[in-house]
Predict the structure of RNA helicase.
Amino acid sequence: QHNQTPQPPEPPRQNQNPLTGAPYTPRFYYLLEKRQRLPAWMARQDFLKLMQANQVLVLVGEPGSGKTTQLPQILLDAGYHVQMGQVRAICCVQPTPLATLSASLRICEELEVQVGTFVGHVTRFEDRTSADTLLRFLTDEALFREAMEDPLLERYSVIILDEVHQRTCELDVLMGILKMVMQRRPELKLLLLSSSMEVKKVQAYFEGGAPLLQIPNRTFAVEVFHCQDAEKDYLKAAVRTVAQVHTTEPEGDILLFLPLEDEIDLACQLLRKESVHMMNFGDLQVRALYVGLPIMETQRVFDQTAQMRMTAGKPCRKVVVASAIAETSLAVDGITYVIDAGLVKQRAYNPRTRMEVNVVTPISKSSALQRTTLAGRQRPGKCFRLYPEQASSDWPEKVYPEIMRSNLTTVVLMLKRLGFDDVVHFDFVDPPSPEALMRALETLNFLGCIDDNGNITEVGNQACRLPVDPQIAKMLIEAPQHRCSNEALSIAAMLCSLPVWLRPNDAFRAANEAKARFAHMDGDHLTLLNVFHAYKQQIQDGHDPSRFCAENFISIRAMRHAEVARDHLKRIMESIGLQMISTDFQDKEYYPNIRRCLVSGFFMQIACLESEKRGAYSMLREGQEVMLHPSTSLGHRPEWLVFHELALSSKLFVKTGTQIKPEWLVDIAPRGYFDPQKISEKSSARGKMEKLMARRQGQDG
Ligand code: ADP
Ligand code: MG
């Protein structure tokens, strides 16, 4: 890359790449030809005309029509990055880090440039852009953070919000913010992309109604089959159906939708085993696709089966086992068969308990249709639904906006920071429940992020700088006072990472034994710290950490992710003036300090033992019964626990818990938070707290 301002890609006149000076490879022309056949390219003229004439445009096109990868390039070609005599950038916001990365890498490949030069991306813990980057792919969260530094987002000439039909909480709030910004910056253009026609609400939200451009569809008929009866074990049914398609149906790849990451991994394992017995029918290549896989692995879903070898005179077939991300965000080519379990993992929030949990629920009717059409993108296809037809009759028509079922704490803090003081009257596309908003404000007040008048505090400003939940942020901010900055940082990084423990089906015992080697008797947070320390020790001793991880059934991906997150968070902590202090490991306060620090962030997530025999706890203020999750490394059942999250399966479980002392609650939580009257009568904690307070008063007096 030269020092001069990079120019937008011109149609290649000679065979030299104007962005790098290097000659184009044959692959460039191969991809260019493919790109130019995409529906988005065909709609180029209409698109540019409407962009020119309007400040906001909504564009709808089927998955795979080239919205994400082609439209930003078309805007650059047309010179949209130059505005009012200045070179600005074009921003494209994706709802997940996986979609962000995938799009950025794909365009770099199409243009034959290095990531972070002309095109780049920003996710939570990674920034692969430079001052010269003209096309910036961002996660929704990353755009929030940029808005904090640059409220009018003046570095951009065009902002593209992708996948708006998904109505994620963050995209909804960004629409609200951008609506305000556009009033102050009439030259800023906003492009909203959708893979579904359900965008009326979004269109109507903008002044005068945003115009709609629909890219013509090019889909083929899809034949739909339902199961006769409800499948109890949809995973087994799914694997069976894949085998059936592979052995009886003509050529064409398979896309299988399952709701949970674990199930996807398990299905892949089963299918790989199964494929050995089906070699006579051709090779079956198995690929997984969900958020959290390493990017290189997810890119392998795009491998073209046509280029793979023949087996037994039969062409190779690919099966992609995917989460809902494959529904619209990542369109895989060559799919002829879709197998759909009809389920999705969704956020659910209960404002009363303040807890957000993930639940598996039936998909909406519009999602079911969307999944079906994916089988007909290149030729007529088939869709096998693993549920009876009548089962879907009471499913919701469409996706219920996520903002109505989310914990709003982070979003409200961001809005406060951006100067939207009256969040209750913020111009939402669909307003969340007043109760959820009040809960968020109350939580922020307890954490000290906003004061009693609702104004953001110094702690609140610091928390905004840290790209983690406000509770973890609070823990990091308080860490120097508890003399455990380095340890809190490691725990925070581990909590933000992927699941650490691998649970291979065929080595369950060995995996549990390995886990026990790191167990800290005081709790899971400290176990995580042990694992992190052991991992770093391996590296320091010059060993290959991947061997260590494999031997101990630890996910190396999770560890690498935690390392990156830790470095990133450490840099921010230092830049906002938080000191890196540790207690000496030999000091008997080493672990108590860390446990106190956990309480300083998570005092709203305390459980008190109700029945030792059943392992039943009650959530401290709410009184709700919760059980200790079997995955815990705690060998006993402590009377008081601070916990990181709730998981809902057959019961409500607390996950990642660490033993604490009730005195700490009184000392560390805001004054009055644990007044016995505030504690549910159902909880035995009320009596215990009363005694503790009485004892305290005796001491003071
Ligand atoms: P849309 O955003 O409209 O769903 P995309 O721009 O993502 O469409 O995709 C356009 C085409 O490029 C599709 O055929 C898709 O399969 C292909 N494609 C997208 N990303 C990749 C990738 N990382 N590798 C290979 N092909 C890709
Ligand atoms: Mg897209």
Notes: The two ends are 73 Å apart (CA to CA). The longest helix spans residues 556-575. Residues 38, 61, 63-70, 102, 106, 299, 302, 331-333 surround adenosine-5'-diphosphate (ligand 1) (CB under 6 Å).
